[in-house]
Design goal:
The complex is a heterotrimer of chains A (422), B (362) and C (160).
Chain A lengths: L3 H4 L2 H22 L5 H5 L10 H6 L1 H4 L5 H4 L8 H4 L15 H9 L2 H5 L9 H7 L1 H7 L8 H5 L16 H12 L2 H4 L8 H6 L2 H8 L8 H5 L12 H6 L3 H8 L2 H9 L5 H4 L29 H32 L5 H20 L5 H59 L1
Chain B lengths: L3 H10 L4 H10 L1 E3 L8 H21 L9 H10 L4 H28 L8 H23 L4 H12 L8 H9 L6 H33 L5 H9 L6 E3 H26 L22 H12 L3 E2 L2 E2 H17 L1 H4 L7 H25 L2
Antiparallel strand pairs in B: 1-2, 3-4
Helix pairs in contact in B: 3-5, 3-11, 4-5, 5-6, 5-11, 6-7, 6-9, 12-13, 12-15
Chain C lengths: L17 H30 L12 E5 L7 E7 L2 E7 L5 E5 L10 E3 L4 E4 L4 E3 L5 E3 L8 E7 L2 E6 L4
Classes of the chains: A mainly alpha (422), B mainly alpha (362), C alpha+beta (160).
Chain lengths: 422, 362, 160
């Protein structure tokens, strides 16, 4: 076997290795722009310090941008004088008021953004200018949110990164940094309980606890860059993006015009805006937990409808419970009731449908769904009764055959005795 | 004056030696002593086997072997077929009673020493029948294709795979492949309804023929007593006295099966999902529990060898000893007979304790 | 078996009274017959097949060729659950479970949308059963379609 040692001399080997090293380092340097700023700033204390790790998380850093991309100056130079020279364009610390325009200098430039990610939108700044935040910013308010308040600055991650402050699961927390701070929000005169309320809601439960990214968070209803509360007249439109049927039924119900006339905020009137709890059958009707009695009083048409609808739901629910109970009893006695139990699942469909149809606020509409459910519940209940009857039949049959067997045993006993008495 | 009955009898008389058969039957005697009640166990086992054959044949009318049909066909039997629940529950309960009875019969024969010369082959055929019954139990258990069956079979077929050299081929043979699939079901079904019954029929006929040939054995102690005092010897006729008593016992058994089937019907379970995870605390049927629990308790390594494999080999040794027991029983050159009784007692106690332990353990 | 006399014992004692013997014989006979009947009756009933059609994952006759036109569908019973058989606009047959994977409602074919729709919460599936919009988390289970003569059979996808 010939080895490399035999083909080249030692000197030649050294030369080859050195050249290879230089070429490789050169290539590496080419891939990442030299970011001399971090050499010093990674060792400085707050607020001047930015560690290498922090900056490496930044999506801009990963795309090859240095500190100079935002702060200006010369990032390739090791000499602080040259690196942080005004002639080189160094801006120093960026003022809050300057941030939106600074970010927009790239992010609103379609030609430039195409080089990095053609799929990204370039209208964020435009949207921002229409938002409550943007309007106040343009009037000189320095407290209001700017890009970095939500997106972070040196550790700014892509929104799809679960650790990003604007990842869907983190948005509510990010907004709450200001909007839950009563002191901070004093000059604006708006409530600061939204986050606390949202934490109690089903949407929070779906998003943060169950990890369902399709669940709504602040920006889903309020917008992100163009963040503005939808306004009383438009609430139903916002909710209807997901809750299609309920919205459709509402639009054809008597409540649509009534709410509009009274200036009520559509869905929010009954369901609240942030603290949207899981609805229960108690919400409909005339009981103490019902929302209907907030407006309707005894004697008016709505009151009558509310009570009727509640009764229908209750009927169906109790019919379902009754057949579940009897089927459970039959099963515990050892009877095979897997088929009626499957059918029962279809009866539950009807209850689910009914709870959506409630939004028509029409007792006759609701009746269609509840009647369908009651029909199935009747069948499954009958199946359960049949199973129990069958069980009884078996016990009776067993008893009878045991009597026969006992008779035979007695007969045999005597027969044997007779036989052997001979 | 000839009634139809006498006409039929005469027809047979002209062709067969009925009188001769009747004389033979009259001659058959059963010794009567304080241990005679144990004689019922063999017939009871045979009766329960008969119940299995009848209920099994009936189940075959509706059962379909095949991973996508087996569970549904059992469901059909339990819910739609008239008295299907009865046939199936009797089959399942009788299976358990049968195996219990087979063990009881074996132990009683062992303690009463009926395996002695000249009845060695009767014992051997009996032990083989016991193994067959366990085989019936194992193969039948998978047939409903529910979660319990599936995983019990999975664990059960993995155990022999531990045996060196022949282990993996054995697993392939039992499973019809690497995993438990529809092929396993077909294969075990074939065993359960054709192969094992064929072998069992042969062995039962052999077993009964040998019993007929040699007559009933009398325990050594009683034999000694009777030798000392010939007048004390007692016997009863097989036909009709013993048979009638056996019939009573069989009727009691039928009653029990009815009670069990009606009050504790066998559950359908949930259809097996091969991709699902095994339910927690999965264990085999009670008659395999003592082996299962033993394997669980053996430490992973014993004297440098794999613990589970040692356990299985130990079972093999016990099985071989059981099979060859009559040849190991001697009074000279040294008295192994007493040792056999003692060891059998210990083993029985061990089996019972391990079964209970396995039952209550999580 | 203590009081068992030997078959060969001599001197027969006086036989029990005839009427008593008759009674015992009748008792025994009745018992045997009655118990035999109580075993045979269930067996006889068992052998008569049940009226209900085939349950189980076997082939199910879903529809006749004439039942469907292009861009129409039919709901049929598959075992214990509903199934959906669709003839697409191109004339292909598709069959799948009609149980919505969201909360179990029965889905339907929408010829106007050429997609499968669940009326309960607006879930949508494409013609392969894949969940494409709305709350359903999983696709609909697809079945195999076999056309024999003028009948369309549906069965579960065969496992290995």
């Amino acid at each position: 076997m010939i080895s490399v040692r035999d083909l080249v001399t030692r000197r030649q080997r050294t030369g080859i290795l050195l050249t290879a090293f230089l070429v490789c380092s050169g290539l590496m340097a080419f891939a990442q722009a030299r970011n001399s700023c971090l050499d010093c700033h990674s060792n400085l204390p707050e607020p001047l310090g930015v560690s290498v790790e922090t900056y490496s998380q930044n999506i801009h850093a990963q795309k090859g941008l240095t500190c100079a991309a935002c702060h200006g100056g010369d990032a390739s130079s090791d000499d602080p004088e040259k690196a942080m020279s005004r002639t080189a364009g160094w801006k120093g610390k960026i003022e809050r008021k300057q941030i939106p325009e600074l970010c927009a200098s790239c992010h609103a430039d379609a030609e430039r953004m195409k080089n990095y990610n053609p799929g990204l939108r370039v209208d964020q700044f435009q949207q921002y200018k229409t938002s409550v935040h943007g309007i106040k910013w343009s009037k000189g308010d320095a407290k209001v949110a700017v890009c970095t308040d939500c997106h972070g600055v040196h550790d700014l991650r892509a929104p799809s990164d679960p650790r990003s402050s604007v990842h869907p699961t983190n948005i509510a927390t990010t907004c709450s940094h200001c909007h839950a701070d009563a002191e901070y929000m004093k000059p604006y005169g708006i409530k600061t309980d939204q986050f606390a309320n949202y934490e109690q809601s089903v949407h929070h439960d779906a998003m943060v606890v169950r990890g369902d990214l399709s669940a709504p968070t602040c920006t889903t209803c309020h917008g992100n860059h163009g963040a503005t509360p939808p306004g009383v007249a438009n609430v139903t439109n916002v909710c209807s993006n997901c809750h299609v049927f309920q919205a459709q039924l509402f639009q054809t119900s008597p409540h649509k015009d009534a709410f509009a006339a009274m200036g009520f905020p559509g869905c929010v009137t009954c369901h609240s805006n942030h603290a949207i709890k899981h609805p229960t059958d108690e919400m409909i009707g005339t009981g103490e937990k019902a929302v209907c009695i907030r407006c309707h009083t005894d004697g008016d048409a709505g009151f009558v409808q509310a009570r009727a609808m509640h009764d229908q739901l209750e009927n169906l629910q109790s019919a379902l419970s009754a057949s579940e109970e009897i089927l459970g009893r039959a099963e515990r006695q050892g009877m095979e009731v897997s088929q009626p139990m499957l059918q029962q699942a279809q009866a539950k469909d009807a209850l689910l449908k009914a709870r959506v149809t409630v939004h028509s606020f029409s007792e006759s509409e609701l009746k269609r769904d509840t009647d369908a459910g009651l029909a199935v519940a009747r069948q499954t209940h009958a199946a359960g009764e049949q199973a129990l009857k069958e069980w009884k039949f078996r016990q009776v049959g067993l008893g009878l055959s045991l009597v026969m067997i006992a008779l035979t045993l007695v007969g045999l006993g005597f027969y044997i005795r007779n036989l052997e008495q001979k | 004056m000839a009634s139809p009955a006498t006409g039929v009898r005469d027809w047979f008389h002209e062709r067969f030696d009925l009188e001769g058969i009747k004389a033979l039957a009259q001659k058959k005697k059963v010794p009567a002593h304080r241990y005679s009640y144990w004689y019922f166990l063999g017939g009871m086992t045979l009766f329960l086997f008969g119940v299995q054959v009848v209920t099994g044949a009936l189940l075959l009318m509706y059962y379909r072997p095949g991973a996508d049909e087996a569970f549904e066909s059992v469901q059909l039997i339990m819910t739609q077929v008239q008295f299907g629940w009865l046939v199936r529950s009797v089959h399942s309960w009788s299976a358990n009673l049968l195996i219990f009875m087979a063990f009881a019969h074996m132990f009683s024969v062992l303690f009463l020493k009926s395996y002695r010369k000249p009845r060695e082959l009767t014992w051997v055929s009996g032990i083989l029948l016991l193994f067959l019954m366990l085989g019936f139990g194992f193969s039948g258990y998978l047939l409903p294709w529910n979660t319990l069956s599936y995983f019990a079979t999975k664990v059960g077929t993995e155990i022999p795979a531990q045996i060196p050299i022949i282990g993996h081929p054995t697993l392939l043979f039992l499973r019809g492949g690497e995993e438990i699939t529809g092929s396993t079901l077909t294969r075990l079904f074939g065993f359960h309804v054709a192969i094992l019954p064929a072998i069992a029929t042969f062995l039962i006929c052999l077993h009964l023929a040998l019993i007929q040939w040699f007559g009933m054995s009398v325990p050594p102690r009683v034999e000694a007593e009777w030798e000392a005092n010939p007048a004390a010897r007692r016997e009863i006729r097989f036909f009709p006295n013993f048979v009638l008593r056996e019939l009573m016992a069989w009727y009691v058994a039928l009653g029990m099966l009815g009670v069990l089937a009606a009050l504790f019907p066998w559950s359908l379970g949930v259809k097996a999902d091969p991709f699902g995870s095994a339910p927690a605390g999965i264990k085999p049927e009670w008659y395999f529990l003592f082996m299962f629990q033993t394997l669980k308790l053996i430490p992973a390594k014993v004297l440098g060898m794999d613990g589970e494999m040692l356990g299985i080999l130990a079972f093999g040794v016990v099985g071989a000893v059981a099979l060859l027991l009559p040849f190991l029983d001697r009074t000279k050159p040294f008295n192994t007979r007493r040792w056999i009784s003692g060891l059998a007692c210990v083993f029985l106690g061990y089996m019972a304790a391990m079964t209970v332990y396995g039952w209550v353990a999580k | 078996m203590s009081s068992v006399p030997d078959a060969s014992a001599a001197a027969p004692s006086a036989p029990p009274d005839l009427p008593r013997r008759r009674l015992v014989n009748i008792l025994l006979g009745t018992g045997l017959l009655a118990s035999a009947a109580s075993f045979l009756y269930p067996i006889m009933r068992y052998l008569v097949p049940p009226k209900l059609p085939d349950l189980g994952g076997d082939s199910v006759l879903a529809a006749k060729l004439s039942d469907l036109k292009p861009n129409t569908a039919k709901t049929f019973r598959f075992g214990t659950r509903p199934g959906l058989l669709i003839e697409t606009a191109a004339g292909e047959y598709r069959a799948m479970s009609a149980t919505c994977t969201h909360l179990g409602c029965t889905v339907q074919y929408r010829p106007d949308l050429r997609e499968i729709w669940c009326a309960c919460h607006n879930g949508m599936y494409d013609l392969n059963g894949r969940n494409i919009s709305g709350p359903p988390p999983r696709p609909l289970e697809a079945f195999e379609v076999q056309v024999r003569g003028d009948e369309i059979f549906v069965r579960r996808k065969q496992e290995a």
